[in-house]
Write a structure and sequence with these properties.
single chain, about 220 residues, alpha/beta, Rossmann fold, 7-stranded mixed sheet, 7 strands, globular, binds S-adenosylmethionine
């Protein structure tokens, strides 16, 4: 179920789409916050020292982590493709000064950081809009960047067998077929399919909000 043959959006289209979204993206909080709460409950952020986030968007989750979840000496580095998202997240995280940094990516998921340089790697609601090859590349980057024992923390839009979600998905899939741009390129996915060897699945749960379903996944990088 993870990889769909339907076309995905290009890097340029993703950048243009999220440049237009800007702060409006935060309106999705009513659909995402229950999944974020579950993620935070299962990823021991109180013990984290160095957090990397791929596709940080408006920096909403980073702000919460830095303000309320991480120890005061912990550092955060976020990456995004969209110029607007970089501006919004930098302004939102400015008050954390040297503890938070947000850096641009040009498209391909190559993060210019040293191996073993973080203990949490976040990718929320972004793997599900990438090509399967890029989603796997992000997971490989997580494997490279996480120190042994570190945690990959991901959420994706997911499928559920209940009637409301099936109805929601048929509308979503129809829109995606018309143009992936109508739905920001996102398609329901199962992030477990992208985990190669080197991971121990620690937590995987489906969380429903209204008709929308999210998968929350926490996987530990094996030594
Ligand atoms: C649906 S938003 C999710 C934002 C945030 N993670 C959240 O959960 O609210 C997807 C984000 O991923 C970014 N993105 C999409 N493709 C990307 C790529 N190839 N490299 C880096 N960021 C990307 C978008 O610009 C956008 O900010």
């Amino acid at each position: 179920m993870a990889s769909s043959p339907a076309p995905r959006i290009s890097y340029a289209q993703a950048r243009a789409f999220y440049d237009r979204c800007g702060r409006w993206l935060d309106l999705q909080r009513c659909l995402e916050d229950a999944a974020f709460a579950d993620l935070l409950a299962h990823a021991d952020f109180a013990d984290a020292k160095r957090v990397v986030e791929f596709g940080c968007g408006t920096g909403r989750l980073a702000q919460r982590l830095l303000a309320r979840e991480l120890p005061p000496h912990a550092h955060y580095v976020g990456f995004d493709l969209s110029t607007t998202m970089l501006r919004v997240s930098r302004s939102r995280l400015a008050r954390f000064r040297a503890r938070a940094q947000v850096l641009p990516l040009s498209g391909p998921p190559r993060l210019p950081l040293a191996p073993g340089s973080c203990d949490r790697f976040l990718a929320t609601y972004v793997l599900d809009l990438l090509t399967p090859a890029d989603a796997e590349a992000v997971i490989r980057q997580a494997l490279r960047l996480l120190a042994p024992g570190g945690l990959l923390c991901a959420t994706v839009m997911a499928a559920h067998s209940g009637l409301p979600n099936r109805a929601f998905r048929s509308v979503w899939t129809a829109l995606h077929r018309l143009s992936p741009l109508f739905v920001g390129g996102t398609q329901p996915a199962d992030a477990r399919a992208w985990l190669g060897p080197g991971w121990r699945l620690r937590h995987c749960r489906l969380i429903r909000r209204f008709a929308v379903c999210s998968q929350v996944l926490v996987a530990q990088r094996l030594p």
